[in-house]
Amino acid sequence: MGIALAAAGCARLAAVDSNALWKIVDMRCVPSQQATGTPGQCTLVDLDKRYAILKDIVGRSQYLLIPTDRVSGIESPLVLAPHAPSYWADAWASRDYVNRSVKRTLRDDQLGLEINSQFRRTQNQLHIHIDCMRRDISDALARHAKDAPGEWHWDTLDGSRYRIMRITALSGTSDPFRLVSRDNRNADAMAMQTILVTGAGPSADKDGWLVVNSGLDADNGSGSAEGLLDHSCHVADAS
């Protein structure tokens, strides 16, 4: 696999190989980290926490968190295993790569993480998108900034129905995979879900996070929340 393929965005990779992201991480980034202490074609490889960060060529500021273990996606039982890595917390901790790309320090409610359902993704290796939020979506979500933690509230975003929960942590019982799995108790149900996470306010440490969830099985639901992100990061130009 050449460097051009490694740099291609998810949609372009899928046309070539739906396992391309996994091959980049497993065959290039991890061996480079192990052999030389540098992440190769990735931005970061954390061998202890078992994930890599890769810059996606789609968009000015989009990064992907990709496990260094073979994990197919949101439907995989591995994301719910007792000692599963805290992928969402690790992805959130990596949001500064977005800030560096746009040379701005964005508010936490201007940044988002997202994973697509099995039926709306292009790669068969779990990857969490890390990028800017659309300004209009952040404005719409602001009405949930003071929701009581731990309760789902339905809303319409970009024409689709999503349920939204404010949380005060991204790991443990508040891990978004675990929250969504409570109502989707098998792999087939989880396979239809999409999850987005963003700050509930300017500082997630103070305001918490919003978990935004929909599914292909929901009335007017969606299997992808990626459209709620802005890969052009227009919000950075207005900050």
Low-pLDDT residue spans: 1-7
> What can be said about the biggest beta sheet?
10 strands, antiparallel
CATH topology: HIT family, subunit A
Number of strands: 10
The helical percent reads: 25-40%
Structural class: alpha+beta
CATH architecture: 2-Layer Sandwich
Name of the level-1 CATH class: Alpha Beta
What is the H/E order?
Answer: HHHEEEHHEEHEEHHEHEEH
- Tell me the strand percentage band: 15-25%
Give average pLDDT, whole number: 94
Q: Write down the domain tally.
A: 1
Number of helical segments with 4 or more residues: 10
Distance between the termini: 39 Å
- The fourth-level CATH homologous superfamily is HIT family -  CDH-like
Shape estimate: globular
Q: Write down the Rg.
A: 17 Å
Pathway: Phospholipid metabolism; CDP-diacylglycerol degradation; phosphatidate from CDP-diacylglycerol: step 1/1; Lipid metabolism
Pfam family, one: CDH
Protein name: CDP-diacylglycerol pyrophosphatase
EC number: 3.6.1.26
